[in-house]
Amino acid sequence: MPPRHxxxxxxxxxxxxxxxxxxxxxxxFWSCRCMCGATRIVSGSALxxxxxxxxxxxxxxxxAAYVQRKTPDETGRRYGRLVVIARADRRDAGYAQWxxxxxxxxxxxxxxxxxxxxxxxxxxxxxPDIARHQSTIHGExxxxxxxxxxxxxxxxxxxxxxxxxxxxxxYGGRGITVCxxxxxxFDQFLSDVGRCPPGLTLDRIDVNGHYEPGNVRWATWSxxxxxxxxxxxxxxxxxxx
Length: 241
Prior knowledge:
Helices cover 29% and strands 24% of the residues. By secondary structure, the chain is of the alpha+beta class. The relative contact order is 0.07. Strands 1-2-3-4 form a four-stranded antiparallel sheet. A four-stranded antiparallel sheet has the order 5-6-7-8. It has a two-stranded antiparallel sheet with strand order 9-10. The radius of gyration is 29 Å and the shape is elongated. The chain has three domains: 12-60; 71-127, no CATH class; 140-238, no CATH class.
């Protein structure tokens, strides 16, 4: 005797409203419309057992709500040239995005993680400004090879903010960063630390502290040798600053 099928037409299960039956093999399936407007084919047993309550949007909404609760509020914060205005409506691969106002007057949408890890500092206007600054004949461009201070500034940023750098794990990998005042401005760095005297190199006073005013000096090799963490590898022993 064939199994008796229950007529589900018109019934509501969670966000799903049953529209009509759809015959598939021996089981009974039902065409359902979700509250979001999408349609989905669901078996009658899945409806009755509570295994299907939406087209999938319910789980997405729950995940979005969870991420929103866990995402820090960036409104009003400054990252380089960017000031966060408000949270953007759209998301990027599940990550929260933020509407930002750049110092140049332009607006842009930036992923929150890119702001916090220092990947994005501007709407895009910063790189051309840096290129123009470095191409100016002022003796500080790395092309000229005349400025030890500029080379120290550049190496300092690479150790802390470029994971590809060979010394990253001992600096940026440990959470050591360059303060915003110095990260985007060589002139500010030079103003704070001054010119490098002959025979000295850049050094942090507190080896576990950041590169920031008050924690950086020009030091001799012997001073740096006394001011270092215990070395566990040959590479570590060669890292300075």
